[in-house]
């Protein structure tokens, strides 16, 4: 079993007398992680199983009665529910049980979609629960090759003691196949097939099974276009025209991808006094390998070589976004004015300072690559330094305010 970054913090949190909700996309390793942290739960429900799901949907009170049948004393009895969103009534039952005796049970609810919970107004147990996220791998879990620069300049992620990590990987491998744990541990020859199956079975069939969209053919076309446009500023009107849907429907489809933890919305930065900032967000699919497969391309080095700079920028956005989720504070945005000034990432760190970050595919950065970042730092008091993330072998000062760093030193 390879350690995950969240493993230590989550193990500590699970000792607290609260309800624990673990969200994350399919195949990020939720069940595997919980099997290690809770090897012998008193009760385990897998609501991805149609028979188990149908049983609780037909008799919602069965869950509560089975929990109440556990012995009084000797607790807490840990109850794990996989894909809990499939039966939203479980959340109400958990509240009743938890409020009646918070020391008798310890509930751990897993979910790969918040769609049903949001639409049904499901009870997410405010004041009684801790929300956790499990995401594709970050650099702390899957290190760079030994020759790459160690350390973190932009957003350090405290590293709990780990006994093992996933195999080290070069940048090109990450851009080609993404960072899902199961894909990383598979032979390279089979990764493309696994990712293609994931895009079909999860991003398409799972949505169809839950009857979340009416026009299935139009949604498949939307998904492919959204994957091809991943990382770009969203043009709702153009996408709606391309796939033959209304603009509100296209917006709801993007919301669906967010609800299923399959996409990240990156807003335009609003902390600037300038009036000409754009307000339309960028949207990035949550994993590059899945993004390639969902777009209709075969994941692999060839798809990266077609547009390496854009893929590299998406990877940096996702790496920083995942770290912010684990840290539980901070914000990610992009900066673009109608006058043409553009910066790939504006990072509001948990400490409150603002850091502009430009992403360049080059291995030989020059001061000209830092001009917009340097100007941003000069114009904004909350920013004291900026970075150009690239493929240089070691950190390099470009201007008095901007440093070029290797991708491994994020």
What would you say this structure looks like, in words?
With 410 residues, the protein is an alpha/beta fold. It has 2 domains: 7-133, Rossmann fold (3-Layer(aba) Sandwich), CATH 3.40.50; 171-409, no CATH class. It has 16 helices and 13 strands. The strands form 3 sheets. A 6-stranded mixed sheet has the order 8-9-10-11-13-12, with helices on both faces. Helix 10 (216-228) crosses helix 13. The longest helix is centred in the middle third of the chain and has 22 residues, at 188-209.
Count of strand segments: 13
Query: Strand pairing plus helix content: what structural class?
Result: alpha/beta
Question: For the terminal residues, how far apart are their CA atoms?
Answer: 26 Å
* Rg (CA only): 22 Å
Q: Could you report the average pLDDT, rounded to the nearest whole number? A: 91
Count the domains.
2
| Largest beta sheet: strand ordering | 8-9-10-11-13-12
Stretches where pLDDT falls below 50 for ≥5 residues? none
Question: What is the global morphology?
Answer: globular
- Report the helical percentage: 25-40%
Assembly context of the chains: single chain
**Order of helical and strand elements:** HEHEHHEHEHEHHHHHHEEHHHEEEHEEE
Determine the strand fraction and express it as a percent band: 15-25%
Major sheet, described briefly? 6 strands, mixed
Number of helices: 16
């Amino acid at each position: 079993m390879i350690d995950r970054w969240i493993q230590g913090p989550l193990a500590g949190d699970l000792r607290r007398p609260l309800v624990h909700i673990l969200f994350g996309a399919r195949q990020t390793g939720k069940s595997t992680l919980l099997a290690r942290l809770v090897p012998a739960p008193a009760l385990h429900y897998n609501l991805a199983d149609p028979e188990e799901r149908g049983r609780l949907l037909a008799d919602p009170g069965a869950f509560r009665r089975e929990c109440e049948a556990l012995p009084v004393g000797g607790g807490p009895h840990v109850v794990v529910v996989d894909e809990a969103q499939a039966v939203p009534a479980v959340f109400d039952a958990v509240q009743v049980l938890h409020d009646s005796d918070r020391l008798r049970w310890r509930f751990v609810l897993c979910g790969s979609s918040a769609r049903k919970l949001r639409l049904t107004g499901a009870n997410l147990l405010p004041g009684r629960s801790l929300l956790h996220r499990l995401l594709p791998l970050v650099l702390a879990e899957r290190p760079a090759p030994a020759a790459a620069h160690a350390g973190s300049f932009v957003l350090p992620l405290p590293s709990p003691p780990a006994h093992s990590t996933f195999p080290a990987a070069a940048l090109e491998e990450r851009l080609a196949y993404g960072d899902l744990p199961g894909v990383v541990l598979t032979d390279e020859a089979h990764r493309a097939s696994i990712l293609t199956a994931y895009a079909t079975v999860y991003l398409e069939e799972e949505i169809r099974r839950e009857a979340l969209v009416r026009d299935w053919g139009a949604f498949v076309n939307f998904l492919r276009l959204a994957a091809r446009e991943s990382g770009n500023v969203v043009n709702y009107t153009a996408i709606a025209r391309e796939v033959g849907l209304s603009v509100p429907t296209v917006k709801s489809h993007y919301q669906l991808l967010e609800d299923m933890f399959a996409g990240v919305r990156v807003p335009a930065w609003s902390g600037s006094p300038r009036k000409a900032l754009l307000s339309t967000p960028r949207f990035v699919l949550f994993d590059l390998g899945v993004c390639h497969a969902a777009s209709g391309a075969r994941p692999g080095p060839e798809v990266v070589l077609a547009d390496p700079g854009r893929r590299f920028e998406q990877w940096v956005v996702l790496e920083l976004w995942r770290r912010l989720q684990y840290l539980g504070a901070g914000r990610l945005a992009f900066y673009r004015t109608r006058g043409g000034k553009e910066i790939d990432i504006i990072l509001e760190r948990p400490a409150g300072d603002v850091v502009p970050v430009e992403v360049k595919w080059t291995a030989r950065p020059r001061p000209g690559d830092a001009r917009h970042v340097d100007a941003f730092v000069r114009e904004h008091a909350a920013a004291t330094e900026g970075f150009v993330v690239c493929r240089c072998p070691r950190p390099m000062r470009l201007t008095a305010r901007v440093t070029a760093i290797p991708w491994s030193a994020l």
